Amino acid sequence: MNQKTPWLLYIGLVALGAIGSLVAYQFLQRSPSDPNLTQSPTATLGETMPIAPTESESLLCESANYRAELMADGSQVLISFEEKSGGGMLFNAPTSVSGATADQRTYQFQGETTTTVTVYASGECEMRVVSGSTGQTTVQETGHLRTESSIMPLPEQPQQDTRTYDDGYKDGYDDGYKNGQNFRRYNTGNNPDAAFGGGAMTQNSQYNRGYKDGFYTGFKDGYGHDRPSPTATPTATPTATVLPEEPNQDDLSMTCSGSIQDSVDFTAYFTRESGFSRIELRPVTSDRTITSYLSYDGKNDEGYGIWRGSVAQMAEVVLIHLSTEAAQRGDQVSVGYDGRWGRATCR
Fold first, then answer.
1. N or C: which end of the chain has fewer CB atoms below 10 A?
2. Containing domain of residue 74, as a range?
3. Measuring CA to CA, which residue among 220, 330, 201 is closest to residue 277?
4. What is the distance between the alpha carbons of residues 128 and 115, in angstroms, rounded to a whole number?
């Protein structure tokens, strides 16, 4: 064999090695976006749920038996909580926030009971209700989280809604009775205002009035007060007492309508049986009517009768009868709500 052959083989191997190194270098220098390269697909993370409501989107925590809704009102988060079979237990109550992380947040309302809703970005949620008097947990359920538009238009009603006051009263009584039973069962307190919320919202004002009256009567009966009995003798209750300080011995019945700083319209109701026991508040920026039941609270230094109530156990409602005599048409009342005041003449 020619002596040059080993040298030629050696040179050939070196050349092949150099070419291989150059190819490898060029391969490693290519950009990951080079279309000539095949890349492994990037793993897609599972979708996460928001843990805070917005002005346009509320959060709903729903289990088999309960439903909680978290709504944003400016910087405040409000909670509504209900049992599916029995109606509302809280309506638009303000919450405090605790335990906030990127993956979870806890919203809590503390009144006669403490209602807590914890939401998780994973789409799960927990609801818990604890009695303020006994410390006993009355509700504890895990549910699923979803979002819902906070812009809720009034449901469309038939062109001819022929339902009567009596129809509304019957429907309202049934709903109120169930709510009263639930409020007593869960020790939420004798608070028909919180249970009623906005009540029946239809275009039929006659039906709405009947529903509201029936609801409050039903709630009282369901809660365990003044249950109707054909042989029972009428008795006075804390919310329907004829007080000697506010005599009303005739069959007088009147309303007192006015406005609180052009932001809330109100109508106070006076009857022989209960005096100034009820007031309806209608914020001008809302279609809702809020009803507060009042109780007599004595007289001020001027000798004027004072009646007090609340809205959802939070905002105080005060009515002052601006007279030292028995109530009569033409009298004026001063009404305070949420720190603001207005006046009305009774008719």
1. N
2. 57-149
3. 220
4. 6
Final residue belonging to a domain, choices 202, 223, 244 = 223
Nearest-angstrom CA–CA distance, 145 and 258: 42
First to last CA, the chain: 132
Q: Do 262 and 316 lie in a common domain?
A: yes
The residues pairing with 78 across neighbouring beta strands, listed in sequence order, are 71, 94
- Both tokens of residue 133? 């008097």
Nearest alpha-carbon partner for 71 in 63, 80, 62, 61: 80
219/260 same-domain check: no
Query: CB neighbours of 318 closer than 8 A, spacing ≥ 6?
Result: 306, 307, 308, 335, 336, 337
Amino acid, single-letter form, for residue 201: M
pLDDT (tens digit per residue) in 277-318: 899 999 888 888 888 888 888 899 889 999 998 886 667 899
- Structural domain count, the chain: 3
CB 214 within 8 A of CB 178: no
Cα 19 to Cα 13, 16, 60, distances in angstroms: 10, 5, 65
Distances (CA, A) of 152 to 58, 60, 149: 11, 14, 7
pTM, whole model, 2 decimals? 0.35
Assess whether 180 and 258 both reside in one domain. no
Q: Output the CA angle 284-287-291, nearest 5 degrees.
A: 85
Partners of 276 in the β-ladder: 270
**12 falls within a domain:** no
Beta carbons within 8 Å of 24's beta carbon, 6+ residues apart = none
**Does residue 230 form part of some domain?**
no
Which residues neighbour 81 within 8 Å (Cβ) at sequence distance 6 or greater?
66, 67, 68, 69, 88, 89, 90, 93, 115, 117, 127, 129
Cα–Cα nearest to 279, from 184, 325, 195, 346 = 346
Give residue-wise pLDDT tens across range 185-229. 777 778 888 788 766 667 888 888 888 888 888 888 888 754 443
Packed helices 165-185 and 205-223: angle between N→C axes, nearest 10 degrees: 30
